[in-house]
Each structure stands twice: as C-alpha cells, then as structure tokens.
Amino acid sequence: MGEVKDVPLLSELLKDSPKNWGKWGADDEVGSLNYLTSLEVIRGVGMVRSGKVFTLQVPMGAPEGDPIWPGRRTAQRVNVMDHSHYQCGKGPHFPGELHYADDMMIMYLQGSTQYDALGHVWYDDQIYNGFEAETTTGGMTKASVLPIAEKGVVGRGVLIDMARYRLKNVLDRGETFDHEDLMAAAAQQGVEIKKHDILIIRTGFIGSFYTMPSDNFYDNFVEPGLTYSPELVSWFKDMEIPNLVTDTIANEVTIDPVSGIALPLHSALMRNLGVAFTEITILDELADDCAADGQWAFLYVAAPLKVVGGSGAPVNPVVIK
Amino acid sequence: MGEVKDVPLLSELLKDSPKNWGKWGADDEVGSLNYLTSLEVIRGVGMVRSGKVFTLQVPMGAPEGDPIWPGRRTAQRVNVMDHSHYQCGKGPHFPGELHYADDMMIMYLQGSTQYDALGHVWYDDQIYNGFEAETTTGGMTKASVLPIAEKGVVGRGVLIDMARYRLKNVLDRGETFDHEDLMAAAAQQGVEIKKHDILIIRTGFIGSFYTMPSDNFYDNFVEPGLTYSPELVSWFKDMEIPNLVTDTIANEVTIDPVSGIALPLHSALMRNLGVAFTEITILDELADDCAADGQWAFLYVAAPLKVVGGSGAPVNPVVIK
Amino acid sequence: MGEVKDVPLLSELLKDSPKNWGKWGADDEVGSLNYLTSLEVIRGVGMVRSGKVFTLQVPMGAPEGDPIWPGRRTAQRVNVMDHSHYQCGKGPHFPGELHYADDMMIMYLQGSTQYDALGHVWYDDQIYNGFEAETTTGGMTKASVLPIAEKGVVGRGVLIDMARYRLKNVLDRGETFDHEDLMAAAAQQGVEIKKHDILIIRTGFIGSFYTMPSDNFYDNFVEPGLTYSPELVSWFKDMEIPNLVTDTIANEVTIDPVSGIALPLHSALMRNLGVAFTEITILDELADDCAADGQWAFLYVAAPLKVVGGSGAPVNPVVIK
Amino acid sequence: MGEVKDVPLLSELLKDSPKNWGKWGADDEVGSLNYLTSLEVIRGVGMVRSGKVFTLQVPMGAPEGDPIWPGRRTAQRVNVMDHSHYQCGKGPHFPGELHYADDMMIMYLQGSTQYDALGHVWYDDQIYNGFEAETTTGGMTKASVLPIAEKGVVGRGVLIDMARYRLKNVLDRGETFDHEDLMAAAAQQGVEIKKHDILIIRTGFIGSFYTMPSDNFYDNFVEPGLTYSPELVSWFKDMEIPNLVTDTIANEVTIDPVSGIALPLHSALMRNLGVAFTEITILDELADDCAADGQWAFLYVAAPLKVVGGSGAPVNPVVIK
User: Fold this and answer.
1) Which of A76, A88, A138 sits opposite C85 (nearest CB)?
2) Per-residue model confidence as pLDDT tens digits over D178-220
3) Which chain C residues are within 8 Å of D306, Cβ to Cβ?
4) Are A95 and B7 in contact (CB under 8 A)?
5) ipTM exceeding cut-off 0.95 for this assembly
6) CB-side exposure of C32: number of CA atoms within 13 Å?
C-alpha cells in the first residue's frame, strides 16, 4: 500500500478507544473469547435443529489458486510418496507390502481460512493486553494463536448476510457497512444479534474469487467490509462479541474512507478489545441454506491448529444447524 | 522397517475380509463417515451436559519437538515479519502505521494430529472404493482428505481409556488389545459403545512423548494398539464405526504379532471398510475429566484442513461435554 | 502453453536426428561434457590474460523478484536467527556469547541460474543415453544433475553477443537465430567458435527483466533464442559443443516457429546429444567488457550444487579472462 | 551447547585482537577477499599443470543424510513433476509433447558446503567492518554473502593435510592444531603457504561422516580444528589469508580448550579480519591425488549462490591442478 498524506496515526485515531486489557488478568491471551463460557457453549448447542453441518474453510492449494492477502503466497502441497514410487521400485518395503501416499505443505499460517493470534497486529509497540511488541520477534511468546487453539471456539453463531441485504451477489470493492447496518440486516432476516454471539458476516467477496481469473481478483485490491467509528467499537464492546468471522481476507474495509488508515479495526477490536478475528471463510452455501430455512443462528465450533508461537493458524470452522 | 521372512502379503491376509466398496456409490470418497447422518449429529449434540470443551490436537512446532512417524519431519514455523523488522526500518509502511507479525510453516500433512485420506494406504493397486492406486500419483484425485474436510465429522464420540482400564499410565510398547477388550473397558467405565459412535481410544502413548527425551520415545519404535483379527474387523463393520481416533501415531499396533504384517488395520478398516482414521490426538486431559465426572460419551466435532489432493490433513478436534 | 493444432510430435520431428547415446558407455550421465578432457581444461586455462573475474548468476530472492519460467516460484529466503533474537532474549547462549544469523531457503532447483540434468526432459519415455523415463519418478536415479556437479565444467568459453550483433539491447520476443548467425556474429567479433568450446550466447533477455515491472516481463511470455533445424543439430554434433549457456530461461526460442513445437532443442541437443544446458545466466557486464577489450574467449568454470537426484541445480558460473 | 562457568566473553578475549575494519573502505563487504586481485588470479592460474579437476562440495539431500551443524536440518528435495505425472495423465501438454521433471528444495543456507557471509557472526552488536548487528535482522543488508558471490573467489589454493601429517585417517574429536603445525605439515608436504593463498585444511572429519551411522557422528559433537591464540591471529593477518577452507562444519575446534569459548576464530578471523570462511568441504579425494603427484598448490575457483540478504550460501568449489 502506498503512503497517504495527512493520514493520522493509529495511536492518534484510537487514543480514546476502549481496551479490555487486564480485564481477564495480566496473563490473558484469548481476550473476548473469555466470554464463551460453558453457559455460552450450552446456548450454542441449544440452537441445533436439523443436524445439518457446514464447513467454512476455503480449499487450500487449489489448482486455480487460493484467495490470500497480496504479498503472501498460496499454500503449496507436494508429494513425497505415492503409487509411482512403488511402480518404479523406489517405495519402502513394509512387512505385508502396505503401500502409502505421503505429502508435505509449505504455507503461510494466514494463507487460508484462519484465526489471527490476538498479538498479530499492533501499534505503539504493544500488542493485546499490553504485552510488549518485542514478544513477537522470532515467534510469538505472548498472545499467539496457541491459547486460542487450546481453548477452542464454541458458541452461538449468527450469520448476517450483508450482500443479500443489499440485493447483491457480492458487495462492491471498498463498500462499507457498520453495526447499524448489521442490525438492520438482522432485523430483515428475522434474527437478533445477541450479546456474546459469534458474529459472522457475509459479503460474497471470497466466493467471488472463484468466479474470475485471479489477476482480476487482485487487481486494485480493496475489500468491502466493516468500517471504523467510535460507535461501532462501543457496540462491539457492549455486545461483548467474542469473535468476528467474515468472508473477506481482512475482516474490514481495506482503507478506512474517513481517516485513510489501513485496517483500523484490527487495532480497535483485536488489539484493544481482544476480539478474535476469523478471516477468509466461505459463507455462500451456508447463507443460501439459512435463507432457505430461515434459521440464521446456530452452533459454531472452530479450533485452529495449535501452532506454537504462531501469529495465526488455519482452521476449518464447523457450523451445526 | 526391515523385511521379515515368511510374512504373508496383505492381499493374502485380507482376501476374505469385508469391504464397503460401492455401498455409498461408485464415486464415494468419505466411506463410513456416511454413517454420520443428521440424525447422528443430533444424537451427538444430545450428549452435551455441562458445556465443557476439550481440544485434542498436539502442539505443532514445539521446541521439544512433536511426536511423528519416524522418517517424517516435525513442522517448522518461521517468521517473515515481526516487531524486529520495524525496529530496524525493514517493516512495510501502512497508512496509520499498523504493525503486524506474519509467519510460514513447512509441514508434513500427516505430521501432527490428522485425518488420513481414505486413499492414504492400499495394497493390490487399489485404494478405498476400488479407485486405482495410480490416482495417488502427484496428488490424490480420488478419496483425498478434501471430501472429509468438506463434510466435517460430527457425532457421538465415546472415549475408551485402555490405559486406565489396565491400571497403567501408558500401555507398553507393542501391547495390544481388541474389540472385546474395548467392550470390557467400556463396561467398567459404565458406558456403552453404540452403533455409529466415533470411537476414541486412549493408550497414553502420545502423552508419554512429553515425559521423556525424544530419542527415547523413538528408540525401538513400536506402538501399542488395536490388533488385527477377522472378528475385530467384523465388529467394526457391524457396529458401523465411522471414525477411529487414538492417541497413537498409527491407530494400531505397529506390527501385528500374529502375522508379522505392518499396520494391517489400515487396510482392513480404512481401505476396505472406509473407516476414517484420526491419529496423534492427545487424550489425557479429556480422560481425566471423564474419569472425574463419569461422562465418557459426548459431542465430537472435527474438520481437517481442506487440502486439495492431500493424503491427510491436520486437525484440532473438539469435544463438547 | 495452449495446445496447437497440427503440431507434430517430437518423436516425429526428431526421428532421424542424431544421438550420442552409448558413445561414452551405457552408464554415462554427463554426455557431451565428456569432451571436456584435461586437455580442454588446459586449453581453457590458456585463455586467461588479465585476471579479470566475472560471475554469471542472477541474484536469488531479490525484492523485485527473480526471472523464472512461468509456473515456478521464485526462491524465498527466511531468517531463523538474527540480531533481533538476542535483543529480546530468544537467542542461544554459546560460551563467550558468540551471536550469529541463520537462514533457510525454499527454491525450485531450476528457479535461478542452473544446470539442467541431462535427464531433465524427454520424449518417447526415454531420457538421455536411453535410460527409462521412469527413472525420473520421485527423484532422478539416472542422468541427474549430480554427476555434472561432481565432474565440474571447465574449458574454453566463447561469448557470442547476438544482441550486439543485431544492434539491439535485447533481442525481440520470439526472435530467432541459428548456427550460421552465431558464426557470422563471431566473425564480426573477431573470435572463432572452436570445437569443444563452451558456447555462451547473449540475447539481453535476462538483463531486460531488471528494466521493467515483472508483470510486463512475463506478459505474453515468448523468449528469443536458437531455433531448430537439422543443420543446426548437425553443427552442434560436429562441433562437439559440451555446454550451451544463454541469458534466457530456456536456452532456445519458446516455440519453434516452423513446427510449432515447444522447446525442440531441449530434446535434439540435450536428450539426444547430451549437450549440457546452462540457463538464466546474466551476461551484460561480461559482454560489455569483452566488447571493450576485444577478448571474447576465456576460461569458464562452473559447478552446480551436488543435489542428489536433482533434475537441475543452481550454479554461479565463473569466467576468468 | 551448555553454558560454562568462568568463560570470558569474546569481547574480553579479543579486546586487543587486530581488525581490518575500514582497510578497504567503510562500505566494504568482502574483507580479505580484496587481497585476491587480478594478479592473484593470474598467480593461481599459473599453478595449473595437468588439467585435473576436483569439486569439493558434499552431496546435498543424500539418502544417508548430510553432515550439518546440530540444530539445522538437512536439505530436502521433492519432485513436483516427473514421468509418473504423464503416466497417469496429470502432466502438462506442451506442443510436440515434451515431458520434463521438476523439483524443489528446502534447505538451510549453511546446511551444505558453503561460504559464510562476513556478517554471519558477531559480538558487541557489530559485525564485520563495524556495521551494526541490527543490519542482520530479517535478512542481512550489510556484509551478506551476496557481495562474495558477485566477486567470486579465484586464486592460488594450498592444501594442508593435517590428518595425513599426523598419520591418521581423521583427526580426533576436539584435536587442535595451529599455524605452526600448518607450516610444519606444509614443509613435510614440500609446499609453502604463501601470502594471499587460499588456505585449505584437511582433517578428514567430513569424510568420516560417510563411514558411520549419523547418530554416531553427532554423538558428543566436538570437531577437531584450528585453535585460537593471539599468535595465530597475527599470522593470518600478516599472511593476508583471504579465505579459510576446511572439511569441518565450523572451520575451527568447537570449544577453545584454553578459554572455554565456542568458536572464537569466527570472531577473530571472520568478524575482525574479514577472512572468508568456507565450511563442510570434502577433501579426501583431492588430498589423495596431491599425495600421489606431490602437487599441493593449484588454482581454486569458487562462487557461492547469489542469495540476496543471505547469511551464507551453498557452493561447489572447483580445484584445477
């Protein structure tokens, strides 16, 4: 991203923005996921009606490429053992002659559907809960994705389909919305966003990756999404939202159109309030089903990989309706 | 593994062993997971009592190493961006000065807690459902882990603690047990293994990795586990077990002590019956909790990563009690 | 590359093309490099005049990217240890407190200046010297790059500057030339291409990578280069050229304009005659110097990395004038 | 390595040790390689007698493993395309049906025969020539291996066979020697170490890797090698040695037996004097030949890969006799 003149610093924009630091102790590394108590688990489980299951990860290592943040590389899978090795006499001999296939993958930990570590982004040299930014050096020793992966994320999920609400397949590039829009869409859907809900927002953006050449997708890359306002931050704080899940790569509009700042909600919601971010999900099939049966709230279960020191980790979230 | 004299071939041992090929259609790639219908999902959800959540993956990229099958390498995580880049002026400038950490991982797809693709192992040049072994070449185009990841695994899980049943912290190297032992242990636990249950077996073996130098763990590597018999295979078939989950690396005793064959259950259960294998879980904390509250059956939710063509994929399974 | 109608097969085009198979024994894996006897080494050494040294590799892992064949990925270097680890207390303690930096690289073996293994390409299921194509499966066990790396390449090199000859900075996309052009250019340069010379051809193409955005470089990717004719192949055979070195990615015009075949010289020269191919060198500085001092022949010394089973290996060739 | 009590700091041990910082300008990044002027190139070329060629790299990615510093991983090569892909219809179609093999490698840049960057090691937060240690963070921007690779290393090499001098196949673990020993061995060999010679020392250590199980090689890992003394450092300075090449992993005894410091010569010679270090060569075949023909001095030509920002880079050095 180019530098923009007269853009304020995050530390300036957010100088009065609320923080949940210390709320769950000085050592806390999972932030607003603490809201997901066993009671909330039970509340989520209580949403199950029909036993339908949806998985929200995008494919990894697809021939057509995967949707990723520009500058990262897509996951690359390579075989180290398969049928061909046995055909030409290079396979290992096991007693009884079992044959097997084996493979490796090289990946960015945030190069597919993933949970960000709460310490993934920062300003003013401090990450979530006031840990020093220096703890990220060479591998995160504080607020990495590991504690999130150890806890697991289980609760009541609610899907807000902003694209459908605006009568589009996909929101436009750079198109924004806020909490008022979310509530309006929820009302139209006939569902209520409740305190402690896992908030899942559909823009159609990730789904659009699969409908065009990838060069077009990345050309003039600006995502649609939530946009910053003090009121929106307060709403997230008051609603005690534990987890924000979207079908975009960065969960918010790429550049805040008011301040010109890149990705301010990463700081306002994740760094300051400890809201967990789940990015690059695909929600189109789930949304179609919810539109069909009218059930927009459900049990959401997700646990990213337990990567020690990870700034994020891939995940395949499960929705049970 | 060295070659052993007079060991029969898998094709010989299993020539009369039952198959579920074709049972769910010629194109089926998820096998016994087909038993997990929405009714079974509801049955699993019905097991939730207290809202306690457990995650079953081992850590990845731990400083002390991770437990893996000999010959594979442990996952390696490396930073590509962190606080130090900004300290020395090498970080990117975003409008507003957002800072972030980013990292990559190089991993074996079966180098942590993982689901095997149904086509991961074979004999006689055919994988699950009769697909040609040649389909594994260069990346699996049939019965890869992808369809499992797309479906997700949700149902009633039941934990059988064989170590506890035998009054040990860890089963001995090469120690075996069978379905009769499982049922006896279940009876003692006061739980019943029911048709279509996701069968989770604790041996203590993976937990033991973390109690000793890794050289000791790998020295004379022979795992404890289930052992082959025609009766055991019939039991799995009749019980319509969709998924076998253990805290060992290969879900069965390394060498069948009767035939001398390596890993015959991979063929008898996975290749022939389509039973999904989940390996390298850690079950110690869950087992302690079940022993404490007496609840050995629960909701099990797992979805491996959607790796296109993968012979397996890592997963962080979630248990909700 | 798209398929073209009515393009003949390589096996058809080259059915009467000469082969050096068996010429150096049934086990030979270095082909025409056998021409580089100790006498040829002495001949090369005899070309040294001033002691000037040139290195011909392109940079690897450059921020602006590296020139590679479309579909491959550029080399990626990542730090695993540096000053920042010591700054934040994560560095290892050595007695005396030595600090160090350490890094890894992920690379295509043909993703920089490199020697092709003689078995790198083939048609009709046979690679150089008649070895079965199956020997390439899972890693080359015949005619890999290893024997080339073990032998080393030392001899008299001669630079033919086709771009300069045609009064261009860079040859046009798809622009071709043949052995007659090479000899005409040599004559104008005042140098003779002699039997057993290492033939180095400058087109300016790799140098042009560094003068434009990489998207432009890859757009409608067609390289300039040598083009197939039976006479050109005979000339290479008669001149007993051990090694062809160019500043293009594939050492020949991408599509033969007569037959429509992709890269026929890889087969005619490398597979059939055993001519070693060195690709992706940068020759601009060397060419300027040769133009300035009129010395176009010199000692050439190159040894690719000894990669076991490699289909190629990176190299930084040295020219001594 | 464990910490040892009462071991002085490098900054203490070397507080009066000579430096060549600034000698070749404030921006110099190749240090003592500056001694290798074109005159020295000519001197090296003048050593060629018979035209025999030797390559000094160890194999990379060998099935039995490669010799590396404990804690690093051996290079891993993986195929991404080979004959098997065409066999099963997964190969790309090129006009004319050219087939090819392609592969990748994951490697430590110092995980095979390699040149260290002059900035690879340091103490007191400064690397060679006084550049800040911070310049190593995230990739070396000063005194990386790139300038060495761009220059190339060409000169008169002299082999001193310490193992042969001491009538051993391999020096003992931790066995030391110094410049006096080198000169005594040279005298017995009938060769003189001259000013500006590339100094190549054989211990037999790397060769021994290939004679034993690798566990034995790494067990109680202590290398034989040169050992620190102020006189030895002065000798290197006065002799203006441009490059130290050995068949050990770290070019010096692992722990200085006098001070208890790990690898002090890395600092005294490389960081302070700018002597280039070439490590993990294999010299056994070359040494046998030199012993047979009595020619211990020769032309040495080496150019590591041009890795941008690399702390080191692999190389396959060439000796021409």
Assistant:
1) A138
2) 999 999 999 999 999 999 999 999 999 999 999 999 999 999 8
3) 55, 57-60, 112, 316
4) yes
5) yes
6) 28
